């Protein structure tokens, strides 16, 4: 048997990151999971406890017979990102698949244009674009040395289409979608520069996803009048497929629409529900 394959998933405490980590484990990867919430109950918004933690995700990965390394890492802090990547490479030697999933997590992402705090906007760009470039720079040389590696970047439909209304009225703020629009180009550049050296790069647009956080905060129906909401397992299944299936190579360097890919390839049993319309 060959060396175990290693996947690193940022923001894996809950939602798409957690589901991606579990899908990768199911496909035989050992998984590094990062995030800010280490223990259940650590994450709160106001009086609401947001479920999910590195502890829980790691237990679920290990229950599938795979190794799991947990790292408390904050994508908003470049020193934390650098230290996290260095620790992974020191302890496990290599990263075969990098899933850049963790976004900025903080206030100010729902402001209308004239209310945008430019300091907040700069922090969002730092977290959602610059620091994820840095993380990729740290693991990419090892991929190039081995002649193979996959980078999956989580995009956003908010950067692709006009919002159906202003922020706070069924739409979204420029603060979030502007940073994501920049991040969408990272996989494009990786593909152009390094495909010939064995690097596979994708941007995955997950579609409107009903996460544990949205459910806990009662915000699961925020966009349902315009977009169908799906569980994070949909995007998670596509992450696993992109990392592991040669058929995904037809989408190298492209925007991958997770909901459509999941349905086309039958990646998630029982989804979409038979009564779900498009």
Note the main attributes of this structure:
8 helices; 278 residues; Rossmann fold; single chain; two-stranded antiparallel ribbon; globular; alpha/beta
Walk me through what this model shows.
The chain has 278 residues and is of the alpha/beta class. The chain has one domain: 3-Layer(aba) Sandwich (Rossmann fold). It contains eight helices and nine strands. A seven-stranded parallel sheet has the order 5-2-1-6-7-8-9, with helices on both faces. A two-stranded antiparallel ribbon has the order 3-4. Helix 1 crosses helix 7, helix 4 runs parallel beside helix 5 and helix 7 crosses helix 8. The mean pLDDT is 92.
Number of domains: 1
Alpha carbon gyration radius: 18 Å
Molecular shape: globular
> What is the CATH superfamily label?
NAD(P)-binding Rossmann-like Domain
- Helices and strands, in order, run as EHEEEHEHEHEHEHHEH
- Biggest β-sheet strands, sense, barrel: 7 strands, parallel
Mean pLDDT over the full residue set? 92
Distance between the termini: 44 Å
- Give the helix proportion (percent range): 40-55%
Q: What is the count of DSSP helices, taking H or I runs of 4+ residues?
A: 8
Q: Pairing-aware structural class of the strands and helices?
A: alpha/beta
In CATH terms, what is the fold-level topology? Rossmann fold
CATH arch. level architecture: 3-Layer(aba) Sandwich
Which class in CATH terms? Alpha Beta
Number of strands: 9
Strand order of the largest sheet: 5-2-1-6-7-8-9
In percent, how much strand structure appears in the residues?
A: 5-15%
Low-confidence stretches: none
């Amino acid at each position: 048997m060959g060396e175990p394959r290693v996947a690193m998933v940022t923001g894996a405490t809950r939602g798409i990151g957690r589901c991606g980590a579990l899908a990768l484990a199911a496909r035989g990867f050992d998984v590094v999971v990062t995030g800010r919430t280490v223990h259940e109950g650590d994450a709160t918004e106001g009086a609401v406890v947001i479920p999910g933690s590195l502890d829980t995700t790691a237990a679920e990965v290990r229950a599938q017979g795979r190794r799991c390394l947990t790292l408390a890492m904050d994508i908003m802090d470049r020193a934390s990102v650098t230290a996290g990547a260095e620790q992974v490479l020191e302890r496990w030697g290599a990263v075969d698949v990098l899933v850049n999933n963790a976004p900025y997590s903080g206030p100010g992402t729902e402001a209308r244009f004239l209310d945008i705090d430019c300091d907040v906007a700069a922090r969002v760009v730092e977290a959602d674009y610059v620091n994820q470039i840095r993380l990729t720079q740290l693991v990419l040389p090892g991929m190039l040395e081995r002649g193979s590696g996959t980078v999956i970047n989580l995009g956003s439909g908010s950067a692709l289409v006009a919002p159906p209304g202003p922020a706070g009225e069924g739409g979204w703020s420029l603060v979030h979608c502007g940073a994501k629009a920049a991040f969408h180009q990272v996989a494009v550049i990786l593909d152009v520069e390094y495909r010939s050296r064995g690097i596979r790069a994708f941007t995955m647009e997950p579609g409107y996803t009903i996460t544990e956080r949205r459910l806990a905060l009662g915000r699961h129906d925020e966009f349902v009048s315009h977009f169908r909401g799906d569980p994070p397992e949909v995007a998670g299944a596509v992450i696993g497929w992109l990392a592991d299936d040669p058929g995904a190579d037809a989408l190298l360097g492209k925007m991958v629409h997770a909901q459509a890919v999941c349905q086309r390839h039958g990646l998630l049993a029982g989804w979409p529900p038979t009564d779900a319309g498009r």
